[in-house]
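Worked Example 4.2. Consider the chain below.
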Amino acid sequence: MKKTTQSQLRSRRQPPASGQRPKRVTRQNVMTAIQELIDYHHRFEEFFPRREQSDWSWLYLCGQLSNLERKTIEPMVLSLLGAIPNAIRDLQRFMSQSPWDVRSPMLHLQSLVAKWLGERDAVVIVDGSGGAIGARKHSIGVAYQYCGHLGKIANCQEGVFLAYVSRRGYSFLDERLYLPQDWFATDHRQVRKACGLPESMHFQTEGELALGMLQDLNERGAVPFQWVAYDESYGKNPAFSQEIAVMHKWYMAEVPSDTRVWLRTPLVEEPGRGLMGRPRLHRRVRRSASAPEELRVLVVNLPRTAWQRHLIHEGGKGPLKADFALLRVTPIHDRLPAIRQWLICRRSLGSQPELKFYLSNAPSHCSTQELIRVSGLRWPIESIFEESKGELGMDQYEMRSWIGWHHHMFQTFMAHLFLMRLRLLFKKNCPRSPRLRLGNWWPQLWQKNLSFPVTAYLRSTTINDETMQPTALIANTITRSTRQRLPNTRAPKRRSNIQHVVVI
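Applying the procedure from the previous section yields the following structure tokens:
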């Protein structure tokens, strides 16, 4: 009898990063998931110029979907392929040096997001995420800067990400790597060259990177959305919100508590002569107008009747509720009143309530439920990062080059969208079936019209041991097509060492 180790017991007790309780899986679910993964990667094969590049992308995708404790290149190759000479170096070259462009498959991924998750009133969330690098000072974009993952200043990389959220689900849309201004100094020239940074790159703030992605997304119109939501790091810049309003989109901007607003829009005096003194050269608020108030002062003076309790969403740990107060206010911008906006004050429940403030340019007839729904959509972006880092190894890459970072992020986006695709396919409860054993169904897989056999099995990160065995299929032996050849004929040579791999 095989003895179970303590690490295996801990892995069984530990819930998946998504926080969702695994459901019982039928044989039809397994067959559907396997074929879906094959068809899913076939959608991206045309964007790889060479066949071996598509094969390496397939292997990397399967490695990210496996339950390896550390999803870096060496464990992936050793687990899925074995000790094949030069395979580790070939996969490293594919991820760090191979000149396949990320832009075209990224646009195709966005079209799949629109097809599977698209809604007219969907929300695009802007957020940054970083990872501590430690002693790897020569990795692209590494600098001592604020790391959101650690909550402090650290030697890390920082990326800017767009995520798509609708009632159907959520997924990544696009990414940019933030390069600190020090990276464009003269003393970093050799490091930039070693990391393969294009000469055309110049310094851009995180807000400028995010606006560039949003403007490109809006101009192409490939993904439907109405809202743009972002946290305080972007919301404290009024110019960022104004650029989104120019796109004719509604923003939900978290703002700091010292943001100043007027409850009533003050009158403004135009340039020209006054009653006395020199003429005015610029517009200004009339001197008789009341001074703007900070939000933390304004919220203290609100009556109790202004607060109402609402349900934000049904979370994995139960319903999430908070108290809300909604007002129409006029923020101050460059000492002048800005456009009339919604102020959403959110107060958490408990003995030590936390206050958050949001400004939105949504029209005055926008419903209270819609404002509350969008203001509470912080959890999807947190779930995306948690699932991608916990299940797909988003922060476990070892590439130091500019192109390597973008390659890894695209592969992670592709893997996460596939998990969301499976969630949509299996959303409805399937009929119950008896627990399946290995011999009941696995020979039928390679008997179908597929180009791979089945030989090995890994554990799954999304389905536990109690519901289904096995959960991974790896093929590295003779395929169906080669078994049909004459006994003495040789199979055509492949330019890469990898074989077909399927992991669910």
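The chain has 16 helices and 17 strands. The longest strand covers residues 318-333. Compare this with Example 4.1 before moving on.
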